[in-house]
Amino acid sequence: CGVEAFTGKGQLLRAGGRVLKNATDQILLQLLCGSEGILGIFSQLTLRLLKKPLKTYWIIAPFKNIDDIAPVALKILSHPLLDPTMIEIMDALTLFCAEKFSGESLGFPDYNHLMVRFDGNDPQSVENFASITGEICMDAGAEDVLAAESASEQTRLWKIRSGTHEAIQNVIGSVCEEDVVVPIAAAGAMIIEARKISSDFDLPLAIFGHLGDGNLHINYSRKDPLDESPLPVDKLKDRIFAAATSLGGKISGEHGIGITKSKWFIKHADPVYLSTLKKIKATLDPENIINPGKIIP
Question: Of all residues in the chain, what percent are helix, strand and coil, respectively (each to 5)?
C-alpha cells in the first residue's frame, strides 16, 4: 500500500508503494492514514486487492441473556482450529430495529444474537469450522443455531446486519451514539457498563458491534421519541468514555475523533502522546489550514 499527500506547506509526501514488504517508510504511511486528514491532503492511494474466498459460511446463534455472548466469542477466538473473519453481536433492541427497517427476520425476536462468519478456499474445512462454532454456541446456552450458507441466505442476513445504524436512527432514534473499543477480553465488561449507564439514566440501550476486535457501537435513545426535552448527552459520553478507558480501551475504534469528540480526546489522551501529535501537526501544517479544529482543538 502507498500514499501521496500534500502537506499544509504545499510539499508532496510519498510513503509506501507497490511493494508487499516495507520496513522503510511504514511509520509515515500509518501516520498519514490514521490522521483523519489533519496532516495532509491525499492525492494518490495505492491499495492491495484481496482474493475473494471460495467459501463463506455464517453461523447465527440467539441468546436470551446478552451476558452469555462475549464469553462465547472468546471461546471461538481461542479455539486452536478456528479463525473467524467476523464475530458480531446484536442486542435485542438493535435486532428489533434492524428487522423492522429491513423487512427481514431471523425468527427469534427479543433475543440477542451472535453472528460468526468464516471464509476460506477449502469448503469442507469452512463447514467444519462452522460446525465446531455451532457446538460451542449450543454448549453455552444458545436457543438454537442457524446457518447461512447460500448466497441468498447470506444476502438476507447481511441486509439485516449492515443496516443497523440506519435502522436504529429511523426506528427509535439515537440521542447518543459512540463506538468505543476495548481489549477483546473486556468486551463483556464494557457491555455490562453500557447497561449500567442505561439504567442510571433511564434510557433504552441498543448495542451492536464487533466482538472479534472489541469495537462496540453503543446507542442510547429516548423512551418517548416525541419527547424533546434536553438530555445530558455530555454526561452520557463522560460515562461511556470513562468506562472504556478504565478497561484499557479507547474512545473510538472506527469512527474517529473529528471535532465532536476532540474535548474527550484531550481529556483521555496520554499527555506525552498529545504533545508529540501537536508537534507533528505544527511541522506539516504550521498555519493550521488543513482541517482546523479537528482532533486537536
Answer: 40, 20, 40
